[in-house]
Amino acid sequence: MSLRDLPAGPVLPRPAAFQADAPSDALARWAAMPAAAAAPTKGDSTITISDVIGEDGMGGGVSLRRIAAALSRIGPNAVTVQINSPGGDMFEGIAIYNLLRAHPAAVTVEVLGLAASAASIIAMAGDEIHMRPGSFLMLHNAWGVVIGNRHDMAEAATLFETFDAALTEIYAARSGRSSEEIAALLDAETFLGTEEAIAAGMADGIAPDTGNRPRVEAEPPTMAQARPDIQARRRIDAALAQQGIPRSERRAMLKQITGTRNAAEPATQNAGIPVSAIRQLIDTIRS
């Protein structure tokens, strides 16, 4: 029950053989930022979203289930949602938006660094949206990887038009701008800085400095937050994404790197990491 009259996000069909992904430029910006984690404490009222939206296949990702668990711990009290995310799965983003929209108390969103793609949809659930200095919102048309024949592609194109219309409705309702204005922002894959987001009606102001606020992680501290090797793999993943490599192929390549060493390869101080896979990865990034 949002305190604002925000539209419900529609339940959208997921195309067959569809792979959701964060935009490569947003992913690259975010991958360079350190992962943050904070231990839950009694009386927590803040949810921190500092990961990709949806399970990422590397031990991280913010899911509907994790947000629901955090809200359950908070109860029917006002909540602050802090976001620093490159986005990810649009369907999961809309589901989280709807969950926050249905929260019985006030929802305040703070954009800490980046709320891109699906994360910007989640941000629109805020009764108040505050930007930190130097932070960005990023809006774009729905996109992903679809595998199939021309009929599959035609069906996907039609569905993507439906997705774009749904996103436009959410952004337009929150900002007060026309559908045509929002569609132009989506077509341009727009990054909105702090002042631009406020001027566009996508945010209400600059976040006040309230000191240390109790918080609830949208997920317990994960391996991705605790281990620097996982953070490093995310940066590699972002570099591969900028080369236009689909998410499924990137995951396969990263599994090769971290998989069992080929017995035919000479042992090195990095035993367990196949040299051939690393060479393939370097060649791919350079190409």
UniProtKB/TrEMBL annotation:
One of its GO terms (cellular component) is endopeptidase Clp complex. InterPro entries: ClpP (IPR001907), ClpP/crotonase-like_dom_sf (IPR029045), ClpP/TepA (IPR023562). One of its GO terms (biological process) is protein quality control for misfolded or incompletely synthesized proteins. It comes from the Bacteria. One of its GO terms (molecular function) is ATPase binding. Keywords: Cytoplasm, Hydrolase, Protease, Serine protease. The keyword Hydrolase applies. CDD domains: S14_ClpP_1 (cd07016). Pfam families: CLP_protease. Belongs to the peptidase S14 family. NCBIfam families: Clp_rel_HeadMat. PANTHER family: ATP-DEPENDENT CLP PROTEASE PROTEOLYTIC SUBUNIT (PTHR10381). This is ATP-dependent Clp protease proteolytic subunit. It comes from Paracoccus siganidrum.
